[in-house]
Every structure is written in C-alpha cells, then in structure tokens.
Amino acid sequence: MDNHFAIYNSTLYYVMKVLIVDDNEDITGLLSRFLKAKGFENVVSNDPKKGLEQIKEKKYDVVLLDMAMPDFSGIDIIETLEKEQILKDQKIVIFSATAFTDSQINDLLKKDGIHGCLKKPIQLSELLTAIAN
Amino acid sequence: MKDFPKNKKNLNFSERSKSQIDPSKSILKKIKEIQIVKEIKKQQESLSNFKEALDKSASVIITNAKGNIIYVNDDFCKISQFSKEELIGQNSRIVNSKFHSKEFFKQMKQELNQGKIWKGDIKNKAKDGTYYWSKATISPFLDEVGTPEQFIAILTDITNQKLLEANLSEALKNVRDSELEKNEFSSMMTHELNTPLVPIRGYCEMLKDTGTFGTLNPDQLDFIDKIESNAKLLERLISDLLDVQKLDMNKMNFIISEFYLEEFMDDLRENNKHLMKNKNIEFNIKTPKNIVLNSDKQRLRQILDNLIKNSVDFVPAKNGKISVEVKLKDNNIVFSVHDNGIGIPKEKQSNIFKKFYQIDTSATRNHGGTGLGLVICKGIAEGLKGKILLESEFGKGTSVSIYLPAPQIKTSFPQTA
What we know:
heterodimer; A: alpha/beta; Rossmann fold; five-stranded parallel sheet; two-stranded antiparallel sheet; 37% helix; globular; B: alpha+beta; Beta-Lactamase; Helix Hairpins; 4 domains; five-stranded antiparallel sheet; five-stranded mixed sheet; 13 strands; 22% strand; elongated
C-alpha cells in the first residue's frame, strides 16, 4: 500500500485513504468534498462492480460502502468478499439504507471486516468518528 | 293407552292374567299382537318420516360391497342429473370427478372396510360434465362377520359453500399480496425519500462548519438553520413511517440490554434542557434510585422523546409544565409524562392511538406530525411486553404512562457500568 504523509504545523501526519462506494453521485460528491476538506485522501466509485475490484486492491484504509445499490448491492459486495475469504482483511463502514431491518444490520456488524454502520441520513460528524475508529 | 280404561283394576289386568288359567288368554294375545302391529306401524311411520326428511334434505345413495349402485333417491338424481335407471347397477365411479387422488379413495376404503364411518367433502361430476361438491357421510352395513356388504352415503350439496370458500381465499390472497406489495413499496419509498436528505443535511452541516469551509453572515446562517431544521423534520416523518411499517409487518426488533435508570433519565434531562429553557417550560424529572433496567434503551427513549415532544407542542406559552415521573408499581416500572397542556376531550381519547389521527386538524395548529407518534409509542410499549395508558382532562392536562413488566427491573447493580 502506498503511504501518504502530510506535514501540518511542522508535524508529519499519515494521510488516510478512503474509498467511497455509492451509486448516488450527490452523496459521493458530498462525502468526497467533506473528507478532502478534513484532510483525507479519497477515491469515489459510483459503480459497485468497479468498487468491488477497488476494494480487492486493498489500497484503502477505510471503505465506505452503501448497502442499497441497484443491480449489485453492498450486500453482494460483502458476500463476494466473504466467499473469497478476504472480507476479514477489510475495514468497511456500511451506510445502512432504511430498507434494512435492525436485525439485518446487526447480522452484518457481526462479520469480521465490517467495522461500523452509519444510518442514512448520515451526519458528517458521525462519519469522522466512524473513520477514526 | 287410549284403548284401556284408566282405572287401577284394569291397569293390573295383565299382571293378573299371567297367574290365571286362561279363558281370556287368546284375548290377551290378540291385544299384544295389536300392540306389536301398532308399534311396527309407528316405527314404519317414523322411519318413513326420517326417510322423507332425509330425502328432502340430502342425496342418498346405497351401493353393494363392490361399489355398484343399488339405490339412489330423487335428490341424488337431481344433483347428478342422471335418472334412476341410468344409475342403478352402475359403479359409483360414474360420478367420479377425478379431482381427488387415488390416496384419497384408498384411505376412504380403508376406513369403511374397518367398519368405520367416513366423513368428508367430495367433488363429483354431474352428467353434463359440471362439477358439484358434497359433504358426505358414508356408513358401511356389516354382515355377521363384520365385513361390509353395503355402503350408504348421505350427501349434502355444498357447491355454493365451496365456491364462497374459493372466492374468499382468493380475496384473502389478493389482500395479502397487496399488503406485501404495499409494504415493499413503502419500504422502497422510505429509502428513496431518505436518500436526497443525505446531501441536503450534509451540505448544511458543511456550510455551518465555518472553521473548515469559511464564514457565513448571520442571515445566511439563519437560512441554513431553517433548511436544516426542515430537513430534520422530514427525516423524522420518514422515520415514523418506517417504524409504523416495521410494527405492521411485525419486523421491529428490540435490542435488550441492561442500563442504569438514573443515567438514562439524566441523559433525557440533559437533552431536553435547552429546548425547555427556550420555550419557558418548567421541566422536572423524578426517578427512583438504584435501578438497573433490562430493556431496549433506544426504543424506550424514542417513546419518551415522542411523548415529551407532544407535551411541548400542547403546553401553554406561559407557565408550561412538563414532568417525567418513574415509579415502581405492582411489579411494573411506570414512566409517566405529565403536562399542563390543553388536554384531550373525552370523546377524542379513544382515537388517540389510531394511525394518522390528529386531534386538531385546523391549518393553524401548532403541532405538526404524521399522526403516527402515539401509534409507534403504543407499538413499542407492546413490543416490550408493556402497555400505554392515557389520562387526560380537557383544559387541565394530559398524562401518558408506559408500563413495563417486572422482568425488566433489577434492584442490584451489575459489576460493570
């Protein structure tokens, strides 16, 4: 993994890289601009299948993954990673769509590799906490 | 009895006659014979009454051991559309609709051969090829060794009933399907409605983050606040709809955990402090100490937030009072939210837990909402095996109490907080 560092107030900081996978461009645009302003490097994927390939590249410290995407959902991505036994290596924070029940979300959170869940509408301050964790 | 004079002497007549050597023996015999004949006639009459009643109300068919028809009544001819001549001698398979499986008839035969009575619904085919349903009772007539030599079937027409049943189950299926469709639709809708709120809320949050994104003048900040508070309201309405849908589908899950009641109530107090201060409402919380609850913290909080929000909207602008009281009562823990608001008229109280009900539907009402808040509170309370009670007097105020059952109360502290 390429490491990125930044110097701020004469201190060297590690710059986290975040991958955002969501089919909605307004949402990825918001998150991308917000994270950039907060000092995170980030890459956006509006195509879930491409997103899956990017996740497999393992270049990212955190993956923000939307659950409800048409054709190939976040669940499909998680299931693929699980099948290939590489889910546990990931640091994924899911955005739960309201269509998911509490128990579905709890089941997802029990899996190794899934580190957090943000309920839509996401609060940006919560997003920072989730990434930091 | 009519034929005998009603005196004691004559009543004992037959007694005496036994001991006497008889000049009158033949008379007695005659009388007995008359009695027997009368009895037989009576029984025949009664039998024929039975037969008439049976023929009028049901179809009757008698077959021999092989299933060949030896008797049918008019009713059977009428419903099967065959004449007696066409039926007698034929096997009863003549009316077989082929609707029932071989297994069905095998079981029927098995029971009948064991001398048992078979009861069930049979679909038969009439001469013109149409089908009819009968409720059947088939009894075997057994010979001396217990083998059936004849079968009598008594059938009542239930074609209309079956038709109704079919229509009803079709209608029920349609209702279920449309219910499912409706639920899927509303689940999809709530998601779709929520999605645009993400950038709306997000960009508001970013604009207010003046440290990162630059300053705004006070007017601009105020506009952003207005956009944000309306987006929040919309979010709440969507979340209400989703909760009602979850309750309707029985899909609301509860996450039960142990927590300190005092901490929980302190949190409630803290979170409402500013709102109450801004609205000049006197806000009090009274709670017993040293209680650990075992319940769904978030859902319980949701109920209390909802009840408090209702109270805030209905208390007077001056001297508004809201208190939240927690009490232990008869193995229940009771959370009550009291207010000195306008109260609810008696005649409207029974509607208060109905979906989409608003007491005040005027355009000038100051309580906005979906009319789902109390429905959700009730649903959650019941989901936590408790109940919700409303007491209110118009003009004086309202109290809403949540009763949660005993297993959710512990009086000892857990080891770790």
